[in-house]
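During the no-cost extension, the postdoctoral fellow (Dr. R.K.) reprocessed legacy sequence entries with the updated structure-token encoder. One reprocessed record is reproduced below for audit purposes.
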Amino acid sequence: MALTHLLGYPRIGERRELKFALESFWQGGSDAAALQQVGARLRHAAWLRQQQAGLGLLSAGDFAFYDPMLDHALMFGAIPPRFTAERCDRLATAFALARGTPGQPALEMTKWFDTNYHYLKPELHAGQDFHLDAHAYLAQVADAQALGSPVKPVLIGPLSFLWLAKSTDGADRLALWPALTACYAELLRSLADAGVEWVQIDEPILALDLDPAWRDAFAPAYAALAGTRPKLLLATYFDDVTHHLDTITALPVQGLHVDAVRAPWQLAAAADRLGAQRVLSVGIVDGRNIWRTDLRRALATLQPLHERFGERLWLAPSCSLAHVPLSLRHETRLDPQIKRWLAFADEKLGELSTLQRALDEGEDAVREALAESDAALASRRHSRLVTHPYVAKRLQQLTPAMERRTSAYPVRAERQRAALQLPLLPTTTIGSFPQTPEIRADRAAWRRGELGAYDYLQRMREEIRHAIQQQESLGLDVLVHGEAERSDMVDYFAEHLFGFALTENGWVQSYGSRCVKPPVIYGDVHRPDAITVDTARYAQSLTDKPVKGMLTGPVTMLQWSFVRDDQPRELTARQLALAIRDEVADLEKAGIGVIQIDEPAFREGLPLKRRDWPPYLHWAVQAFKLAACCVADETQVHTHMCYSEFNDILPAIAAMDADVITIETSRSNMELLDGFGSFAYPNEIGPGVYDIHSPRVPSQQEMERLLERACEVVDPRRLWVNPDCGLKTRRWPETNAALSHMVQAAKTLRERLLQPA
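Re-encoded structure tokens follow.
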């Protein structure tokens, strides 16, 4: 019989219970015991769902209150020395590292491979003292075992952990593997003593182009884990690993998981190389997207493998299901036709069960499920909702000239300086201001029909007026309207564009308590009417200072949505670019002289293999320029990127030709800016001077120090001063305090720079 299992399960809960429990705890509304109870209930519910779906192994150890990489750092004793004073109970220590303290900034945060999930980067140093403290992890495993089903604990592998961490002193992280794997071996022995037969050990870096030193470290590192008794399932995902099969098949592991959704061609090679004893786990259901599985196509792939491997064939999603929403059960407003095309995490469990029964009992045993799968797929292929002749016609009319500004940046810069009259080191924010409980309550009342459209508009205008007044009193130079009317930077635009569907409860975790609800791109995208123009015009009427029009870029709209899989992604990106282009043109006509087109997901879309970078970067840059290059020289175009390593794609970022780019740099102590300096980035840049993902308010002196370092790298005449990202998750008192320090730091440095030599 084929065996079914998961690589991981959503941990936020059906109603985002984890989010609300965390925020209540952080705000002092509940204690640690209450938070732990919520965690226990969520884990128990996840295991019951897996049991009810007939999975052969329950996954344990995949739950984290904030982030699994953070939990692994704590479990192996990798607590940065700068947090020595915060080492109290485990939960408090975890949140100190995740959110910062009055005396220390939080750990650096960046994207998990090419997903929109953010992980915390452990800080390591030469001679790192790893030691095992696995009580919390082992307790989760024991709780799962109490349900009576076999349990498969999940671990991030030692080499992936080291790769994804950062060195604080320039030491070689790879040199730390012997000390770290000793802790892993100790943990595996404890799991064996607890009766665990299989352990899933994730090494997602095997999908990357590893240099020889990292590749060659797998053999001795895993040799150190051999003989610890639990069988090891080496899990890879997100891309092809055939280029490392020689390394993988030489390891003392008893099974291999491969992603057959992202890289189906690797199945044959993996099957041929595994031998007669090892398990092949096939990631046959898409763990990254929400479209139903083509069950007949999946069976055609699996049947020959089943005949060959028998009970050594395991079925699973391609990766952890934490990247998709939990259940379609609560989606009552989706168009029934579109809903029929979708599968969230729980529905994917059902797909695994159907595939297993079809393999073990024959297709007649699941005749109805296969018929429904066929009908749903046919419905989607032939639906008139999917294609639109108007969009196809516009795409045919594209010309290269539509992707170029009228003049080069130096000419534009002079005209923009004359038009905007900004000081040296101009100050601004990234776009959003605090989404207060009152704003959320008004939005909820409006959506329920309890607040009329006119009254809701007036409430939002009151919030906009308040945001403008606050910024003027703080002395900011370029203002924003604050985005009170927007629940999310992608969701807001999606609900105004054709080709998108919005869910009610399709939440996924982005980091910590931050959840996002990606919209679904099911068909051709176009903009029927202006979206932001009236709001921007109103905000600009309240002040003499320039107000930025705030838009989300086409690549980010693509990356942060569940994207249709029936056409190339670049084609969908061009459709999105045309919709944003129309909005840019209308903003300029309305008198908005500064327009920000955010692209925080630009690097996130980068393929994991370098050989695949050029085509992606080509169409991603094209999409941005198609959206932006329809304005006069005097109109200043900004973009924002956050939480990504940029140094290896700086030529592409420069090719976007935005007049100003703002980036995250505070958690990395301006390290990310060094690449822009070495590359001699030609346009203007705003390196973030404080971290908005932490409630910590940095001092004016701390921001001055970061700005001074920035001036060493970039000509101050091309520098802007801003936070790392938007401020919607913060509260007004800390926002005002931090922005006040930021403005004063900019003024102090400005005066110093303008003094005669």
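Residues 334 and 503 are 7 Å apart (CA to CA). DSSP finds 27 helices and 21 strands in the chain. The remaining legacy entries will be reprocessed before the final report is submitted.
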